[in-house]
Design a protein that fits this description.
Largest sheet: 5 strands, mixed
Order of helices and strands: HHHHHHHEEEHEHEHHEEH
Helix content: 25-40%
Shape: elongated
Distance between the termini: 68 Å
Radius of gyration: 24 Å
Structural class: alpha/beta
């Protein structure tokens, strides 16, 4: 069945062209399958194929995008060299800011706003392939909410107002924020804890996010790091109602953010957003493999971050933990 087409071939269509060519399909047959004219396929192979090598979708796509940008009337030119450099780092989970900051070749003259501008121009051109490589997607802010959430379900709740003021400054190590990511139809969850100053994230999947299951998950997950846990700040989900048991096992103080004040646990919220890149909304989480989740956790913890002076959370956490033990 013919596919709907845009003005330009997308990366997905180019990948299909490569696959059809490998299977021996003719140019006309490929055109029929993609719903484009045979001349579009012929022109694509001539312009973006590699002589004596053949057609490679990823390279062809970058070449085509570069050609469109070079034809732009904008005064600053975008070369294939720019695009290759940026693309190769984005596929390894580098953010645009990290790419700009850690550019080894000054002749590239990259900046964070300029890289985002390139991505925006892709979107405007109907090609949003690069947006899928961003660590986080833009989302519309929610308006103010009414009510008190599930705070009334939490016995002996200690409000964040009673938390020591120095925790807010992030100058002291060992203060964590906690939350859960819920699967669609309440099928499974991932419990997350983030250390505020270093941004280290720890995760553990649970089949059911009852207060007992969540408390057990936190205790098991944090036992190897118990010496680093001074406080934890949770949101007001009923799954944290067994906080007293957590505090006893980890020998820490526990506080709760105000209802609908997600910014009071901004570090946790931000890193949960990165975790959602691997476990999107509207998907169940009751079949998450813990080995797989551990790899995702490690990948996030080893990303370079501007707010860590272009270091990564794993190294920063290890450094702070060593200092604490001395």
């Amino acid at each position: 069945m013919a596919e709907a087409t845009n003005r330009h071939l997308t990366l997905v269509q180019r990948c299909k062209i490569e696959a059809y060519l490998s299977s021996g399909c003719s140019q006309r047959g490929i055109a029929n399958r993609l719903g484009v004219s045979p001349s579009t396929i012929s022109r694509e192979l001539k312009r973006n194929g590699i002589p004596e090598v053949g057609y490679e979708a990823q390279l062809a796509h970058r070449t085509a995008v570069a050609r469109r940008r070079l034809a732009s009337a904008r005064p600053r030119k975008v070369t294939p060299r720019h695009l290759n450099y940026i693309h190769e780092r984005m596929i390894h989970d580098w953010s645009p800011d990290v790419i700009a900051h850690k550019t080894a070749d000054p002749s590239l003259k990259l900046s964070t706003p300029w890289i985002y501008e390139l991505i925006d121009r892709d979107v405007q051109a109907g090609d949003d392939d690069w947006t899928t490589m961003l660590l986080r997607k833009y989302r519309k802010r929610r308006g103010p909410q009414k009510g008190g959430g599930a705070a009334h379900l939490i016995p002996d709740r200690v409000d964040i107002d009673q938390r020591p003021a120095d925790i807010e400054t992030r100058e002291t190590f060992g203060h964590w924020e906690g939350d859960t990511i819920i699967g669609t139809e309440h099928r499974g969850a991932i419990v997350t804890l983030v250390e505020r100053p270093t941004r280290l994230i720890k995760c553990r999947s649970v089949q059911r996010y009852t207060k007992r299951a969540v408390a057990n998950a936190i205790e098991v997950m944090m036992q190897p790091y118990a010496d680093t846990v001074k406080t934890i700040t949770f949101d007001n989900g009923g799954e944290f109602a067994d906080h007293g048991h957590i505090a006893k096992q980890l020998k820490c103080d526990i506080y709760f953010a105000k209802p609908y004040h997600a910014w009071q646990r901004g570090t946790n919220e931000n890193l949960n957003g990165e975790l959602r890149r691997y476990y999107p909304k509207h998907e169940p989480l009751d079949r998450v493999e813990r080995d797989e989740l551990a790899k995702v956790e490690d990948q996030i913890d080893r990303r370079y971050r501007k707010l860590l002076n272009y270091n990564n959370a794993a190294d920063r956490f290890a450094h702070e933990r060593t200092i604490q033990r001395e």
